[in-house]
Design brief:
Helix content: 55-70%
Distance between the termini: 57 Å
Low-confidence stretches: none
Largest sheet: 2 strands, antiparallel
Shape: elongated
Number of strands: 2
Radius of gyration: 19 Å
Strand content: under 5%
Mean pLDDT: 93
Number of helices: 8
Order of helices and strands: EHHHHHHHEH
Length: 219
């Protein structure tokens, strides 16, 4: 018997869609260049706060949002590939999905991190907020990495979209809808999931935003 089970909490869903919006905004503003780079920097600073929040939420958040819940070792990955690990056991991210989440977060952290230290080598009007801490050569090296590594992120995004399509076609499960509503169609019984109070997420967001603000304005 298939039933709708609440799997994703509101903070995790809001993080996901805010990440999508900020990523698109950074992509567009970065491609436009010129005065659009100011918006690029603002989006990057907001994304840094969002990523720091997700790291905190991955430790203290709801059960399906915690890294320990979905980042698994080789044994679990093999079980999943063999079809032995059911969604009843792991209703959130499956082991491969967990690796994708980890890879995406690490890639975005590298991208945002280098962006904060990057130099505007064209007009020098829109250097990253922390570029002043590096020498000119080091800042330009950060810029070069920042531009080139974006292709890696695009590749990860492509893999993520392909996985969503494959999941829809072969498992008849709409992951996009699940990330909107928080509910996922799962066959059989599912153990009761734990969800952290929303106030904890709000405090985590305030801490992450405040930390990034201090980092960018006080150094």
């Amino acid at each position: 018997m298939t039933q709708l089970v609440k799997v994703w909490d509101v903070p995790t869903r809001l993080f996901h869609w805010a990440l999508v919006i900020l990523f698109c905004g950074m992509w567009y503003s970065g491609e436009q260049g010129g005065d659009w780079l100011q918006y690029h920097i603002w989006c990057g600073s907001a994304l840094a706060s969002l990523l720091l929040f997700r790291l905190i939420w991955g430790v203290i958040g709801s059960q399906t949002a915690r890294f320990g819940n979905f980042i698994k070792g080789p044994r679990s990955i093999v079980r999943y590939l063999r079809g032995e690990l059911t969604e009843n056991e792991q209703p959130g991210h499956n082991p491969l999905g967990g690796l994708m989440v980890l890879a995406m977060l690490l890639a975005l952290l590298a991208q945002v991190g280098t962006g904060l230290f990057a130099a505007d080598v064209d007009s020098y009007l829109y250097d990253g907020p922390l570029a002043k801490l590096l020498s000119g050569d080091a800042a330009e090296a950060a810029t070069s990495f920042h531009k080139g590594f974006f292709n890696v992120i695009l590749g990860l995004v492509g893999l993520h979209l392909l996985a969503i399509i494959a999941y829809r076609l072969f498992k008849k499960n709409n992951l996009v809808k699940a990330m909107i509503t928080g509910n996922k169609a799962i066959a059989g019984d599912v153990p009761r999931l734990e969800f952290a109070p929303a106030i904890i997420a709000l405090v985590a967001l305030l801490v992450s935003s405040g930390g990034i603000y201090v980092l960018l304005t006080r150094l």
